[in-house]
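Final report, closing paragraph on structural work. Over the funding period we assembled a curated collection of sequence-structure pairs, and we close with a single example.
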Amino acid sequence: MAATGVDSEITKSDKYSILLPTYNERENLPIIIWLIIKYLDGSGIDFEVIIIDDGSPDGTLEVAKQLQNLYGSNKIVLRPREKKLGLGTAYIHGIKHATGNFIIIMDADLSHHPKFIPEFIELQKENDYDIVTGTRYINGGGVYGWDFKRKLISRGANFLTQMLLRPGVSDLTGSFRLYKKDVLLKLVESCVSKGYVFQMEMIIRARQLNYTIGEVPITFVDRVYGESKLGGTEIIQFAKALLYLFATT
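Its predicted structure, as stored:
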């Protein structure tokens, strides 16, 4: 969508804090930051990027410091932690330092393209949604770079969640979302899951709390640099969490 459509809807008081949890993303981080700046800086959107690095041994934090020097500490905010402590706690840590009234969460591995952020913002403004989430599974969305096995796992997981939990959202495991800040705080406090299944529980809890959710079709691209953090352990966690949510919601 054209940036001008977003400009006309944004009030001067709106600010968007983009949370970027990182672990071994030194190759991807400069690219994702450049893309965020490119698509948001000239659109009238007031934003900051909060990088939450969990003690990456590959020098991600040093790269982040260079990016902060390049783009300024008002745009690039560094809030590192000493070690990996889980995605949910990374969001809590980032929210504590966020100055925006809206929070955007996305991956730093280039699987989520910043060009969709203005569409998230525009849809939220049009309908006053509490949450806007990117989806791979409606018309206009898709996945690139996955082999058949990975696509099968993703589709299978999404099918099971739709059958058992009926969340009213087409892509329950996605992690590219926009939240009202107070809504995200409430959801994080209500969730018990960690890791890969955390995003799934967030939407289920949002449904329980009667928050409104909009969807934007996105194209998901498999990481270019580094290794995927989805493995057998995460799949087992997903299955356990699905059963837990089915039993308790």
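The longest strand covers residues 16-22. Residues 197 and 238 are 5 Å apart (CA to CA). We thank the funder for supporting this effort.
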